[in-house]
Amino acid sequence: MQDGEEDLYLGDVFTEPPRPPTPPPTFATCTRNAFPDLKIRLVGSHPLWAHHLWNAALAFASYIDSNPKIARDRCVLELGAGGGLPGLVAAQNGAKKVVLTDYPEAVLIDNLEFNARQNLAPDEQDHVETQGYMWGHPVDSIMRALPKDASTGFHLIILSDLIFNHSQHDALLKSCDMCLASRSANDDTSIAPCVLVFYSHHRPHLADRDLDFFRKAQGGGWVCEEIVTRKYPPMFPEDPGEEEVRATVHGWRMTRGDTGDFPH
């Protein structure tokens, strides 16, 4: 044994390098016509991409503001809410109940609660609840948040830029199926219980895999139709793939019904 080897401390060899500090939160503003702007706090960094205000969320906000009857006096659930913008807009448009959910991690749920406090009037906050939830898991806690007169489920479920998570398509559809309210004989087709799915093809070469979500939905008896397309500056300008594809937000409505042909 060479001199000094007996002094070698294994802790010096296997010590983990110091981790960089978590970046501070950032803020993004949603500019609106009929309502005051919303200032959305975003977590500083997160592997689930909750640190971005996605174009799909901006398109959602605009769509709900332009079509307030889809939220007014109705129960709204947002899955994978991130900063919670669409759900907050639904609350400001008179939703009876809004449940904002994201992965059950304190930093994400605390951030949703912050955004509700900072952007909603006290009476609107009374109609909003935040919960941690993993897609595809039991929904007992979510369903308990419903008012007693709406116990069959949510009239509107919001999926904002989630379907790029291809491995989670089945779980998302399962959650939607468990949470959506049953259709009433009195429902107008334009406001029947529905899932709204807004997204962009962030990776154009995987666009067909994004659309698998709707094929799977149709196979499970959902009726799917595209109702919105809007152009925004691309989220990540330097990313590969056709910029126009990455800059386009698509909005689809899913309702329960007979399986139809996949819309092209």
From TrEMBL:
Residues 1-24 are annotated as: Disordered. The keyword Plastid does not apply. GO terms for cellular component: cytoplasm. InterPro entries: EFM7, Methyltransf_16, SAM-dependent_MTases_sf. Keywords: Cytoplasm, Methyltransferase, S-adenosyl-L-methionine, Transferase. S-adenosyl-L-methionine binds at W54, G80, A81, G82, D102, W135, S160. GO terms for molecular function: N-terminal protein N-methyltransferase activity; protein-lysine N-methyltransferase activity. GO terms for biological process: methylation. It is found in: Cytoplasm. It is an enzyme of class 2 (transferase). Its EC number is 2.1.1.-. It comes from the Eukaryota. The keyword Cytoplasm applies. Belongs to the class I-like SAM-binding methyltransferase superfamily. EFM7 family. S-adenosyl-L-methionine-dependent protein methyltransferase that trimethylates the N-terminal glycine 'Gly-2' of elongation factor 1-alpha, before also catalyzing the mono- and dimethylation of 'Lys-3'. PANTHER family: HEPATOCELLULAR CARCINOMA-ASSOCIATED ANTIGEN (PTHR14614), PROTEIN N-TERMINAL AND LYSINE N-METHYLTRANSFERASE EFM7 (PTHR14614:SF10). This is Protein N-terminal and lysine N-methyltransferase EFM7. It comes from Suillus discolor.
